[in-house]
TrEMBL record:
Family designation: Belongs to the zinc-containing alcohol dehydrogenase family.
Record keywords: Metal-binding, NAD, Oxidoreductase, Zinc
SUPFAM superfamilies, sorted: GroES-like, NAD(P)-binding Rossmann-fold domains
Native organism: Apiotrichum porosum
Gene3D superfamilies listed in its UniProt record: Medium-chain alcohol dehydrogenases, catalytic domain, NAD(P)-binding Rossmann-like Domain
UniProt name for this protein: alcohol dehydrogenase
CDD domains referenced in this protein's UniProt entry, alphabetically: CAD3 (cd08297)
SMART domains per the UniProt record, alphabetical: PKS_ER (SM00829)
Designated gene of the protein: ADH1_2
Classification via InterPro entries: ADH-like_C (IPR013149), ADH-like_N (IPR013154), ER (IPR020843), GroES-like_sf (IPR011032), NAD(P)-bd_dom_sf (IPR036291)
Domain of life: Eukaryota
Length: 352
């Protein structure tokens, strides 16, 4: 039976959020194109922290419920044309819905759809026990994949998988990952390894160093200890010319000031981390041209990217470095993330 009320992390104003008892949308109240998803686990992305702290130029429609790395089970559905049915294991992503008919959607670039809604911004996210999710962007979770491990793949995993593809780096080459000990970064190290790409990790502290080395990083550069990071990154490649690409997964602007300098001639910097407004990428124009360097960006991924990212985890090529704690730990996860003391990805258990 579906209960009348549920626990949800509701943000009424920019001061933060409270875990409250709120009504559950009942099956007969579900709007067309929606599925009621019983959320089991939700990853805690740094994006939710930026939004909660109100430090982005995009602000949520409050009251809002954040969370965009949800894994759960469909308990009701109001969509006769959907491939999904009650009982299916599904994921809730950052892109909550898209029109799937505009030029962007048709080209597989749903994140650019003008009708797209984002979980926690203008659609309810996964920090609630029963989410009335749009069916248009639900993701199927492969059989046998642990639901807690699946959760972070819905944002962190798909994002870095797509970013690595956008980097054009190939097997045998090197990629530098600033933020390598965090949620996105620790997955990026592993997707890169799966692609046959060597990694250079940048982050800070012994715990993150150990995590990065466990995931195959060929070098770890501590950004709080090393003063000349540019030289250290270049020196970590066999010929000293620098890595083919950098996937910037750091939420701080500093990482964007040096990446164009340390990538290899012909290489590519992929902007992924989203520091507060006012951060800039620094690129010396003369050497950007003479060394033919590229700057691209990567914004989550499409439905196929999500399926691929999950499939790679389901097959055991990537493991999700999760720290699972009860729903009440959400605030504490934010604190640890803000302090930079959380290695891997925090995941909340909505039912504990
Ligand atoms: O689609 C996208 N582009 C997308 C998708 C999902 C998330 C972008 N993001 C953005 C988030 O909004 C956030 O800005 O990616 C960034 C990283 O998200 P995350 O992985 O969820 O954050 P985290 O788990 O806190 O990890 C960040 C790591 O960066 C390190 C920290 O120590 C932490 O381990 N770090 C910091 I803070 N400053 C650094 C620096 N200067 C740094 N690492 C290297 N250099
Ligand atoms: Zn995210």
């Amino acid at each position: 039976p579906i209960p009348k009320t549920q626990r949800a992390a509701v943000s009424d104003d920019p001061s933060g959020f409270k875990i409250k008892e709120i009504p559950v949308v009942q099956p007969d109240q579900l709007e067309p194109g929606r599925a009621l998803v019983k959320v089991l686990y939700s990853g805690v992305c740094h994006t939710d922290l930026h939004v909660i702290k109100n430090e982005w130029p995009v602000h949520p429609e409050r009251p809002c419920i954040a969370g965009h790395e949800g894994s759960g089970i469909i308990v009701a559905i109001n969509d006769a044309t959907s491939q999904f049915k009650v009982g299916d294991r599904v994921g809730i992503k950052w892109i909550a819905t898209s029109c799937n008919e505009c030029d962007f959607c048709l080209a597989g670039n749903e994140p650019l759809c003008l009708q797209a809604k984002c979980s926690g911004i203008n659609a309810q996210g996964s920090f609630m026990q029963y989410c009335p999710a749009y069916t248009s962007q639900l993701t199927r979770i492969p059989d046998g994949l642990d639901m807690a491990e699946a959760a972070p793949i819905l944002c962190a995993g798909v994002t870095v998988w797509k970013a690595l593809k956008n980097s054009k780096a190939r097997a045998g080459q090197y990629v530098c990952i600033p933020g390598a000990g965090g949620g996105l970064g620790s997955l990026a190290l592993q997707y890169a390894r799966y692609m046959g790409i060597s990694t250079i990790a940048i982050d800070s502290g012994a715990e993150k160093k150990a995590l990065c080395e466990k995931y195959g990083a060929s070098a770890f550069i501590d950004f709080k200890e090393v003063t000349d990071i540019v030289s250290a990154v270049k020196a970590a490649t066999p010929d000293g010319l620098g890595p083919q690409a950098a996937i910037i997964t750091s939420p701080k602007p500093e990482a964007y000031l040096i990446a164009m300098e340390y990538i290899r001639p012909g290489g590519t910097v992929v902007a992924v981390g989203l520091p507060p407004a006012g951060a800039y990428v620094k690129a010396d124009v003369f050497f950007t041209v003479l060394h033919n360097k590229n700057l691209v960006s990567s914004y989550v991924g499409n439905r196929l990217d999500a399926n691929e990212a999950l499939d790679i985890v389901a097959k055991g090529h990537v493991t999700c470095p999760i720290v699972v704690e009860p729903f009440d730990s959400l605030d504490s996860f934010y604190t640890r993330m803000a302090q930079g003391t959380l290695a891997g990805r925090g995941v909340i258990d909505l039912w504990n």
